[in-house]
Here is the input.
Amino acid sequence: MSKLNSTWQCPSNIAIVKYWGKKGFQLPSNPSVSFTLSQCNTTTTVKAYEHPGRRKPESQVYKEGEFHEAFTQRVTTYLEELAATIRWLKDFDFEIETSNNFPHGAGIASSASAFGALALCLTTMEWELNPPSSMNEDLFFRRASSLARIGSGSAARSVYGGWTVWGKTSALPESSDKYAIKLADYQIHDVFKKLQDTIIVVSDHTKNVSSSAGHALMYGHAYAPRRFVRAAENTRSLIEILTLGDWPAFARLCESEALDLHALMMTSNPPFLLLKPETIFWIEKIKEATVHHHLPITYTLDAGPNIHLIYPEAETTNVRKWLEEHKKYTVSTQFIYDHLGTGPQKIL
Ligand code: PMV
Here is the structure.
């Protein structure tokens, strides 16, 4: 009876060019670009017990020590999808223990770090069972990224540190819809190497529209064809901006992508609105700070009302002072200070 065991810690990520809309089997309708965070992590341990002769894999998921029914269902479906092509999974029962170090509903994609960590554990086990002819690190993370993608598209980008691109783009011949790739150090100007992301938690309520439902609303969306072209253009532009270190161009693109995402939600059928009055308050204050006080800050939004305030590391003191000054005008007082990180860590 073989028993496999693996533990990984994986961070979440924040997309600057957004993935919104799918095609085929969990492939993106457009390329996306993100940077991986540092402080917001999921840690997952997978124990796999051999149980030959099963038709499909079984799993039990524990979150912070407690059995979690909804996660068990989602992970079981995920493992079944993978097992259609990855035969060894059928011969094992999986016991999974997972924990997040960031609050649920804080505007940080927990599915990205969760499926990133799980896919890294599964890839470790796969390589232990069937060692590939060459133990190449790039191949390992590429494989993990392609497995993570099946669970949650944005998770494909979380298996690397720094800046990553998921989806085919003419700017990078090695890019793919099936897995994300990491941008090399020389492709990133110093100003974008230590970016800060302070999450202004406007609301910590769970959003009432899941991202799967949101992606599905892009089928037949009146603006979808134009959106996919624009996202592909923005991907090419952002890759160039990251190399050149052009902050004003970065800020323009970042804000435009955030608003595009929410504009697509507001114009879908049925439409939905995730922004809150305080989201608009902060957007206006950020604009004011950039125009009148020349603070080099910008923002992006995920699928929710919380603001991701993005700025270079050198501005940290000024930005924190600015945030404290404006806090009194709002009811949102929770800030989560994160920054670009170096990627997942193998614990066991
Ligand atoms: O990975 P999913 O299926 O939860 O979709 C994520 C979509 C956004 O977070 C809104 C954008 C992105 O690219 O991360």
The two ends are 20 Å apart (CA to CA). The domain at 191-339 is CATH 3.30.70.890 (Alpha-Beta Plaits). Helices lie at 69-83, 110-129, 137-151, 211-216, 224-244, 247-266, 277-292, 316-327.
